[in-house]
Automatic annotation (TrEMBL):
Catalysed conversion reaction: nitric oxide + Fe(III)-[cytochrome c] + H2O = Fe(II)-[cytochrome c] + nitrite + 2 H(+)
N-terminal signal peptide: 1-22
One Gene Ontology cellular component: periplasmic space
Full protein name: Copper-containing nitrite reductase
E.C. designation(s): 1.7.2.1
Gene behind the chain: nirK
Subunit organization: Homotrimer.
Residues the entry annotates as binding Cu cation: 254, 259, 294-295, 303, 308, 450
UniProt-annotated location(s): Periplasm
Length: 487
């Protein structure tokens, strides 16, 4: 699916034989020389890379994915492994109590040496969250000898979990955590009438500790250090030159798939960028509308959940009708090993993501982003437009503003047709919509997903509207007023 990013490393299997040693003398006569057990060293050199859309271990030629490693009981196995694409990895074989140090482009290759102590088929894999699930898993076959014990049956998942011991204590919140919330006011200005042109964008992918909630942090993966990434705005017919640069401090490969792109997996096929590198694509904005972009590097759900999504608006030739206020809001579902409200530094949970059980739901990346950190405001009589998208990776949004009715909905991000007078609109993961409404009464209007249990996991925003009250639009009625009206 994706181009390989490989750095071939010589591959060798060497067998070294120790010298035979003579046996001891007895008191009667010299015994026949006895041969000590020969030491056999099996040496493997591997690299990591990508093949057929998966992240894998590779042989030196970059052809064999997750090669089968072989040894006999009693052999010494030496594994030397480096990061072919620059991302962070390790290699572990839990059943043999083998674990390498983590390595990436900055550390160079690492070597792990161990004894093949028992026969069987043992799984080797990368323990970085999500990497085993997206392909980094192979087999070490250890053959029995006449003196070796019977092969052990593979351990059950329950046994492996029990052997791992109790869950690690939650680390304290990261002291270096910063705000990753995208300001909802960060909407590029309308383009207006002009001929198609070349538009250039450059986005840096950055991994950083961010503030998820009060006293809670998370290692976000981002476009431009914010969640969502920057909103892009171009015109139908424009040629867009997109450069994606992966920061040198990154531990992961990143990419960009823009749903507005025709061909090349939306750009994902040609923007798999290793740490410290950059790649550029060009595409023509053929179709108008509001489109999601996101990272398309395995594990895609991990990259998206960790914050790698955004919106690109392709204005139609005639533009969109003008409004007084424009806002940029995206919803995401985030999976950690701890429940919402648990203070400390949370880690991504591939198991919860696979089961589609989010720990948090967020607008613009964090709990309280649109209720505490940033304000959305308007005045009575103004028209408000919200560019709304769902990064996901998994959950549909039932987008609703409590106390308002959408005058216009550009459903599914299509600007070719408009729905009117809509209360709640469905937005799919990887989908978007545009909603317009005129505010006719002051107050606090709450942005929600009308799957309302999600509010308790962080999903709420506030639009503050100021101005004169119009009792013809809305009026709280006291009991005395009700009685007077009845008479």
């Amino acid at each position: 699916m994706f181009a390989r990013v490989l750095a071939p490393i010589p591959f060798a299997i060497a067998v070294f034989v120790g010298a035979a040693m003579a046996g001891p003398l007895t008191s009667v006569a010299q015994a026949a020389p006895a041969t000590a057990q020969k030491e056999v060293v099996r040496q493997y050199t591997l690299s990591t890379g990508m093949a057929d859309g998966k992240m894998v271990y590779l042989d030196a030629q970059g052809k064999a994915s997750n090669p089968v490693l072989k040894a006999n009981v009693g052999d010494t196995v030496v594994l030397t492994i480096g990061s072919g694409e620059g991302a962070q990895h390790d290699i572990v074989i839990p059943d043999l109590k083998v674990a390498s140090k983590k390595f990436d482009s900055s550390t160079g290759s690492v070597t792990v040496r161990f004894k093949a102590s028992k026969p069987g088929r043992f799984t080797y894999y990368c323990s970085i969250p999500g990497h085993q699930q997206i392909g980094m898993e192979g087999v070490l076959e250890v053959a029995a000898t006449s003196a070796s014990p019977a092969a052990a049956a593979p351990a059950s998942k329950a046994a492996v979990a029990a052997a791992a011991g109790p869950a690690l204590a939650l680390a304290p919140a990261a002291a270096d955590a910063v705000s990753i919330t995208m300001d909802p006011n960060s909407v590029p200005p309308a383009i207006g009438k002009r001929a198609p042109t070349l538009v250039k964008y450059r986005i840096d992918t950055v991994e950083l500790n961010g503030k998820l909630d009060d006293g809670t942090t998370f290692n976000y993966w981002t476009f431009g250090s914010k969640v969502p990434g920057p909103m892009l705005r171009v015109k139908q017919g424009d040629t867009v030159e997109m450069t994606l640069a992966n920061h040198k401090s990154s531990k992961m490969v990143h990419s960009i798939d823009l749903h507005s792109v025709t061909g090349g997996h939306g750009g994902g096929a040609d923007t798999q960028v290793a740490p410290g590198q950059e790649k550029t694509i060009r595409f023509k904005a053929l179709n108008p509308g509001l489109y999601v972009y996101h990272c398309a590097t395995p594990s895609v759900p991990h990259h998206i959940s960790a914050g790698m999504y955004g919106l690109i608006l392709v204005e139609p030739e005639e533009g969109l009708p003008p409004v007084d206020r424009e806002y940029y809001v995206m919803q995401g579902d985030l999976y950690t090993g701890r429940a919402a409200g648990t203070k400390g530094h949370h880690e991504y949970s591939p198991e919860r993501a696979s089961d589609e059980l989010p720990s948090f739901y967020t607008f613009n990346g964090a709990v309280g982003s649109l209720t505490k950190e940033f304000k959305m405001t308007a005045k009575v009589g103004e028209t408000v437009r919200v560019y709304f998208g769902v990064g996901g990776p998994n959950k549909v949004s039932s987008f609703h503003v409590i106390g308002e009715i959408f005058d216009k909905v550009y459903s599914e991000g299509s600007v070719s047709s408009v729905k009117k007078d809509v209360q709640t609109t469905l937005v799919a993961p990887g989908g978007a919509t545009i909603v317009d409404f005129k505010v006719n009464y002051p107050g606090s209007y709450i942005l929600v997903d009308h799957a309302l249990s999600r509010v308790g996991k962080g999903l709420a925003g506030i639009l503050e509207v100021t101005g004169e009250r119009d009792v013809a639009v809305y009026e709280p009625v006291s009991p005395t007023q009700t009685v007077a009206h009845q008479h």
